Amino acid sequence: QVQLVESGGGSVQAGGSLSLSCVFSGGTFNRYGMAWFRQAPGKEREFVGAFRYSGGKTYVSDSVKGRFTISRDNAKSTFFLQMNNLNPEDTALYYCAADGPPYIILSELRNGNAYDYWGQGTQVTVSS
Fold this sequence. Notes:
four-stranded antiparallel beta sheet; 0% helix; single chain; seven-stranded mixed beta sheet; mainly beta
């Protein structure tokens, strides 16, 4: 069974940076699309960014564009989220998600309900 383990969360000051990692196991990593989501208390789960295997395309939400970067290391079966210039609105539990075949169509990329596997999350707290 596919397992996802996130790490790298913590508490930082506004303007700081964090790098999150998601280690994939239990399957063939390059057969899965990967995404980051986040959820703050009282708020809906929010799409952050994703990697789509076909074409090696990455996508990020408008709210983090220019600050967050998605990357993937197939040799290490690891998916990354580099977060720069953090602000308090970024405070949330960050989740890694995986999408195996049959793959999500592009229009569903930002829909968390369409993903097949989830990690336990890693907490990111940004103070002002």
